[in-house]
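Retro notes
What went well: the complex prediction finally ran end to end.
Inputs used:
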Amino acid sequence: MPPPVLPQHMLSVEEARARILAGLQPTAAEMVGLSEAWDRVAAAPIAARLMHPPADVSAMDGYALHAVDGAPHAVLRVIGSAPAGHPFAGQVQRGEAVRVFTGSIIPAGLDGVLVQEDAIADGDQVTIRERVQTGKHIRLAGQDFRAGEVLVPAGRRLTARDIGAAAAANHPWIAVHRRPVVAILATGDEIALPGNPIPPGGIVSSNAHALAALVRAGGGQPLVLPIAPDDRAAIAAATATARTADLLLTTGGASVGTHDVVLSALQERGLELDFWKIAMRPGKPLMHGHVGEMPMIGLPGNPVSAIVCAVLFVLPALARLCGRTDTAVPLSRAVLGAPLPANDRRADHLRATLSPRDPQPPLVTPFPVQDSGMLARLAHSQALILRAPMAPPAQAGADVTVIRLDLLGI
Amino acid sequence: MPPPVLPQHMLSVEEARARILAGLQPTAAEMVGLSEAWDRVAAAPIAARLMHPPADVSAMDGYALHAVDGAPHAVLRVIGSAPAGHPFAGQVQRGEAVRVFTGSIIPAGLDGVLVQEDAIADGDQVTIRERVQTGKHIRLAGQDFRAGEVLVPAGRRLTARDIGAAAAANHPWIAVHRRPVVAILATGDEIALPGNPIPPGGIVSSNAHALAALVRAGGGQPLVLPIAPDDRAAIAAATATARTADLLLTTGGASVGTHDVVLSALQERGLELDFWKIAMRPGKPLMHGHVGEMPMIGLPGNPVSAIVCAVLFVLPALARLCGRTDTAVPLSRAVLGAPLPANDRRADHLRATLSPRDPQPPLVTPFPVQDSGMLARLAHSQALILRAPMAPPAQAGADVTVIRLDLLGI
C-alpha cells in the first residue's frame, strides 16, 4: 500500500478550530423533565407561560389600604387577612385595612402598603406611624415577567437560575439538545487499561478515561471503545462499531512513525482527511476529517499533548455538537510569575500553576520543564499559558492570557 | 403555644458561614470505577502504583545508539526495531543502532537517541547528520512519577487530568466521598410545581428545583420533598421523612410573618436553633440549626433571596459535606460599570451583568433596580457584586469583588 498523500501545510490553532467547527451540527432535541435539565443545553427559547407576579402583590409584611388613608396617626380598622395563597375576596372601604404578607395579593381597589415596622397594631385596629406612599412596597402584576417573554434563550447551558426561571414560567418539560455521543478509541500495542495485565514494555493507558472525563465536562456522553492494537484491520473494525457516534476521537497514531497505522486504517474506511498538522506545541500531529458522515479528530498519543489538544479542539467541538451558542474556550487574565523567552513559529501552551490573589488576577508560573511526557505535572497544573507564534520575550509581571483548566473541570 | 425565643443578634455573612461549616462533617467514602469518578471528591490520596515511564524511553522517533558513536557523518548498522510495546531484547554493540519511536524502551546499555530529522536512512544503514548528545531525547525511568508518589491529594474534586493521572497510576477504582443527600422542602399554601394546578392567588414554585440544580452543581444529590402547606403538622411530618438526609434545606417560612410556621414546626421536631438573622441583603432571614443529627438551613421563600443565600451558604456547606478541602466560593475581580452609593450595615449582593473584555477583567454592571422579587433579572445576571457593610460610595471604573455565577453552573 502506498503511503497516504498528506497536505503538508501547518494550520494555525484558530484556522484548525474553525475548520473542525464548520464540519459539525448540533444534535437534535429531546424532552427532559425540569429536574433533569440542569447543565443541559436549551434547544428552544424558554418563554413565560404566565405573568409574574400574577397580580399586584405586597413586597413586605404589613397592611394594605387606600393610600389616601395613610396619614400619620390615622387609625384604621383591620377587616381581614390575606396570607399568600389566600387572597382577600371582600371589598375594602375607606378607613379599612387588610393584613398582608410578602407575596400576598393586594385586595381589589387598594394602592398602599403600611409596612409592619411603621404600624402599631391593637386588636382589630392599626395606627399609622409613617405616611404611606401610593404604590410603594407593591410589586405590580407582570413586573418580573409577562406571558410570552423569553426568559432563557436557546443555545444556553442551563444554570440553576435558569431552572428556577423555567419553573416560575410553568415549564415541567424542557427541550434540550441530545447529549452528543463521543466514541473514544485508544490505540497501541503497548497500552492496557488500569488494573489489567500490562504487556511487556507496556504502560497503563490514561488517555481514554481522561478524554471520557473531558467529554463529560463538555456536556457529551463518552463511549469508550476497547483498546485497538497497532493493526489496521483491528482499528478499521473498531471504527465501524463507532459509526453511530456524533464524533470519533482517536488517540495515538497521528504522528509520522512507521507504526502509526490509524491514518491508513481510517483511509481504508473512507476517511476524508481535512488536515493533520497544526503549528502548535504540544501536539503538532492532530488529524481531522470525516469517516462517512462521522467527524473524527485524531489526537496525539502522548497524554499531555492529547489533553491540551482536547481542550483547544474537542471542547469547542462538544459545545457546537451540544447546540451551545458560545463555543469559545473561556480565556482569563493572569500575571506572569517568571520570565519567558521569545516563542518560535508554533503556538505554545505552557503548563503552569496559579497562585490566587483575590481580587487581583492570579499569578501564573510556568513549570521550568515543559516535557510533554510529564502527566503528573499536567495534573498539578491549573492553567495553560497561551503563547502566540513569534511572541516576543515576556518579563515576570507581564499580563498573559491563560486557559484556567481548574474552572473547566478539566 | 408561646412564640419561639430567638437570638436577636444579626451575624455577619462570614460568621454565619463559619458556624454552618462547623456543624458539618464530610460523608464517608465509597468505591467507584475510574470511569465514574470524574467530578467526585477523592476520599484518599491517589498514589502511583508503579513508576512512569517504567523504563528509559525515547522522547522522539529516531535511532537508539551508544552516544559515543554519535559523531556527524558516522554510519551505523540498524540491527532491529523497538516499537512501543515491543522492546528490543538483544545486545547492541558499538557501531550499531536500533530504530525507536516515541515511547519506545531504550535497549539495554544505550544512552543516545539520533532523531529522525538528523538521520539519513539507507536500507539497514543510517548516517548521522548532527552530533548525538548523551541522554538527550531520553525520558528516564520514573521521570514523570515514582511508585508511591501522591498524584492527587484527598479532598480534591477530580478533574479530567486527575482521572488521567489516576489511570496512569494504575487505579481501576477510586475512593470518593459519597454524594451528600440534600433534602429540599418548599413550603407555602400558595405554590404549586410547574404544570400542576395553581391554587387561587397562587404562583408556580421555582425554589425547589432551582435549589436541586444548585445542589447538583455543588456535587450533592437532591431529594425534593413534596410541597408542604403552611401547616405545622404537615411540615413536621415532611421533616421526619428527611431525617436520613445529610442536610435539610427549607424554603419559605423564615421571616417573622404570622404565617411563617416552619420554625415552630421544626421546634416541635426538636430543632436546636443556632441563628436566624444575618446582616445581609437580599435574604436577612436565614435560619440555621440541627434537627437531631441533621443540619438544616432555612432559606427565605423569595426566589432571589433563596438563590443568593444558597450561593453564599449552601455551596460551601456542600463542599464541606463532599469532603472538599476548598470550601470557599471563588471570588473574581471586575471593574464597575456604574457608580454605587455607600452601603448600610448589611452586606449587599447586587445582581449584575458581565461584559467580557478578555484578557482584561470584565466590566460588571449592576441592574439599577435590585428588587428581590425579580427572578427573570436574576436569571439574566452573570455575577453578584459583593458590597461590604458600610462600604463607601464606589465610582464607575473601580475594582470590585464579584462571584461569577456563570462559572459555577448556578
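What we learned: The first strand of chain A starts at residue 29 and ends at 33.
What to try next: split runs per interface for comparison.
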